[in-house]
């Protein structure tokens, strides 16, 4: 059964803003309003808790994340629109909307965490009503989400330096169930923040195992590290785009062995070819086909490592796998690029299995 799509907080804010503007001019409660999203789809939503008084109005739209496990699902996104004589639209955040405290995001330090695309959607929605009404003045708009401060603790906002509430997000206006777009957007934002903070070198790691290994075993400064989940290729692209020239990828063998096969999104639903890669590279160092068959039947990388160690070829196999993985990383970055890339592959049981670290920082 297909999963149901929903719409973003940005879409909610735009619909509520258009409806609030309409209530000011039409002097009536608006039951529903529509906007066209950047993806080209028109979304309509019910208008809740509407009120109007003179040249201002306020109303809400309930967030609908579809079948995506979004922590903001069912929250009310309010917009208050207040007319003014001067042309132009100002957009700010009220209750439950976070404030940017670190440079590197699309909004400046001190501004409300309302991203560029939602801001554009909000402005278009309000200006569309203005054109219908022949109004040539401007408006001040305040977006708020009651309960946003508490919900923000369950999001990536604290890591990004967004304090006091949630962000108003959405690049397409649509929430796709189990969408990877939000994760990639967060990774890109965090990489951008590192660069804006003056970091010259960047450590990428898929998850908390890598983060713990960096801290406890390598003793590197975690301020240089960004968790990129399975999105290694997208993180490399973002790092190069941000201007980093010194990169180090550190991760567990279960994830990073896949890179030797050119796989840059390591989620198991995309590919799980670990044993095939291990067996193919082991074939360069043994003629015993029985070992190769046994490797193909293994379930865990640790089980495969035990077989390779018994055969006396673990170090050779991991050297070849790591070299191929690093070659593919550098190919993704660009063969002619000036970016220096390094790679460390480890296992919790065996420590470092591969290391090629032209990463200039060393331990810090």
Structural descriptors:
2 domains; alpha/beta; five-stranded mixed β-sheet; CbiD-like; 16 strands; disordered C terminus; single chain; 364 residues; elongated; 37% helix
Describe the structure.
- 37% of the residues lie in helices and 22% in strands.
- It is α/β, with parallel strands linked by helices and 364 residues long.
- Strand 15 (340-347) and strand 16 (351-356) form a beta hairpin.
- The N and C termini lie far apart (51 Å).
- Mean pLDDT is 91; it is low at 360-364.
Rg to the nearest angstrom? 25 Å
Largest sheet: 5 strands, mixed
Question: Strand order of the main beta sheet, please?
Answer: 4-5-6-9-7
How many individual β-strands?
16
The average pLDDT value, as a whole number, equals 91
Q: Topology, pairings included?
A:
Layout: E1 6-7, H1 9-26, E2 32-36, E3 42-46, E4 48-53, E5 56-62, E6 76-84, E7 89-93, E8 99-100, H2 116-133, E9 138-144, H3 148-152, H4 157-160, E10 162-163, E11 174-175, H5 181-196, E12 201-205, H6 208-218, E13 225-227, H7 232-242, E14 246-252, H8 253-256, H9 274-282, H10 289-297, H11 301-310, H12 314-333, E15 340-347, E16 351-356
Parallel strand pairs: 7-9, 12-13, 12-14, 14-15
Antiparallel strand pairs: 1-11, 2-3, 4-5, 5-6, 6-9, 8-10, 15-16
